[in-house]
Write a structure and sequence with these properties.
Largest sheet: 4 strands, antiparallel
Number of strands: 4
Distance between the termini: 64 Å
Radius of gyration: 23 Å
Structural class: mainly alpha
Number of helices: 16
Order of helices and strands: HHHHHHEEHEEHHHHHHHHH
Strand content: under 5%
Oligomer: single chain
Bound molecules: iron/sulfur cluster
Length: 331
Amino acid sequence: MARFPYLKETASHIKESDPSLDDFLTDPAYEEARIAGGRRVLEALENSKIEDHSLVSDAEILNELLSYPVARMIVSCVGDPFLIRRYALSEAKTGYERWKAEDDEFITSLSNELDVDHKMEDGYTKIHFSDFLKATAQLRGKIWKLINQRLDDGYVTLNRQRFLRVLQESLRKKIENELPLEVNEKILETFREPTLELLDKIQERKSKYKAEDFGKIRTTRLPPCMHRLLATLQTGEGIPHTGRFALTAFLRHLGLRPDDILRMFSTIPDFDEGKTRYQIEHISGVTSGTKYTPPECSTMKSYGICYDPDELCARIKHPLSYYRLKGKRRS
Ligand code: SF4
């Protein structure tokens, strides 16, 4: 339960052990659990995962288990949409890593709790296509398209790793939809300190990565695909790796500096400065020696990231041509 605190069993256990909300918020016996909850949110914000902590003594196990409801209260006190998305993603990613070591019985019960209808057969899992579509709506890679799945009697067949990935996505959405919880004055008062600390860190992060203007780039000349990718980034939603590659190569080609591109990516829930910088520098040719050009329209289409092509799109074969042509038309 301490390792998988989002399971119903954990909630029932906490109810049965019966600490009242008041005790939970004020009793010194729960002080360590309150601290562990704040640490859980910080780990999510800073490392995008929940760390493994020692679970040797009963007290350690209890604190770890209670750190989950505390973390949800703290995230709700902060109430920042970016933190909610980042926290939900971190819990789900950590869950995925931990589920790998679990047996089929555990996975079956987990998927039942997440309402993912499925059946296991010969080491594979079959899930109904409607559940598959629901769970993978935001996974935009080619491998997640329904058209690329084997479909038998309405069921999609997945290997264990991909099924766990579907469960990760279901857990992420569940946690994200449940937050923020309603928090009263007493809860706000109890968690004032970690709330302020988190607000400071979020603010610091926002100013560090604050996107400046696009320099010489005219956003009115962007093709619909790049426009959509940028807009998705600005709402803080993730975009597929193919989209990250295409957008980075496109903006670099137009002369935007790597640091400016880095700032744009800082709003996505799984942002990692080191990895993102490495990828931008790789695409720019700084570390790879090859300056990549953005994909052509036909490739963008096959990646599923050619969004809402307009009448000008019918005359070009490359997003860069769209940008140039639109410039000529405007002048
Ligand atoms: S046709 Fe080309 S430029 Fe237009 S939206 Fe699709 S990929 Fe972008």
